[in-house]
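All the exercises in this workshop are built on plain-text protein records. A record pairs a protein's sequence with a compact description of its fold. Backbone structure tokens are a discrete shorthand for how the chain folds in space. Once this layout is familiar, the rest of the handout is easier to follow. As an example, a complete record with its sequence and its structure tokens follows.
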Amino acid sequence: MATPLYVATLLYAGTPLDVPSRCGQGAQWEAGVTQTLAQDVCRICAQAGGEVFCAREMMFGQREEFAYFQCPNCRCLQIRDIPPDLARHYPDNYYSLHAPLVQPTRLGRWRWQLEGRLRRSLLNFGRGRRSRIFEWMRRTSTDFDAAILDVGCGRGKLLHELSLFGFRDLTGADPFVAGELRYANGIVVHKCELSALERRFDLIMMHHTLEHVPQQLETLLAARERLQPGRFLLLRVPVADCHAWKKYGVHWFALDAPRHLYLHTEKSIRWLAEQSGLTLTGVEWDSGAHQFWGSEQYLKDIPLRSSHSHYDNPRGSMFSRADLRRFESESRRLNAAGEGDSACFYLQRS
């Protein structure tokens, strides 16, 4: 069951309508209603105009409403007014801030390192998360001695996995962690923005981070300045030029109001890359089944963090095993067609 993307499209002339004030008036501003207004200016390509949408916070079930608009040129979907109190939307139970760290036994560590050497020497094998990690390393020519920075890393879950595989020079940066984290394996996670770091890196990773940052171009410029010449920024973001946005509209799981300030398209990422002196060398779509089960839950007013949610209670959720298999299969098909709701962009410093 899909809700139409546009419940209504209204054209206004003269005095602009105050969309944020109407966004909280229930029946007068039903979630999903869109309007075409002239006063909005895209913060990516500076094009004026665009359709406005009203989306709700649904990860934690607050249901607070926020206005978004979609640029008619680059098609980047972006929040209309960036909340001044963004930190309150990242509570202590936000997933990346309490993700469990991998802590295998001594034998387990040996197996991880052996697997890392085999995957690196054999140019990867198999499927799943580990295979994807080594695909990133292969595409960016990143070896075990490379200096790697993960921006928006939370407690550093991915960095710990890389350490177990045998990568040695690992740093993280996240302004929302409680404080600086220093681990026995040498990993350091700084409580700061990217711009506060001074050293250069061979690989900078932003896994679903850029969409949370108010300053888009400034962030990519800061990343370029901290890259060694010829090295890569690995950028993974949700993308609005996808099947899920067309199907679910404001109930799209990855919209994630208000934390996702920008939902990019391939066109808007290319524009940012050119403006920041980076070259886009490749794109891989890597969406998963949550684009379906999460969006279907939001359609039925079920928050992500809920006893009825597949995320918190998979056995008690509304989805059968057949449903989940169908979602996985459809996600793979959409990725192959370039229509998944998440993509990995490889950006190289010239």
Observations:
- The chain has two domains: 1-82+238-328, 90-213.
- Residues 1-22, 24-38 have pLDDT under 50 and may be disordered.
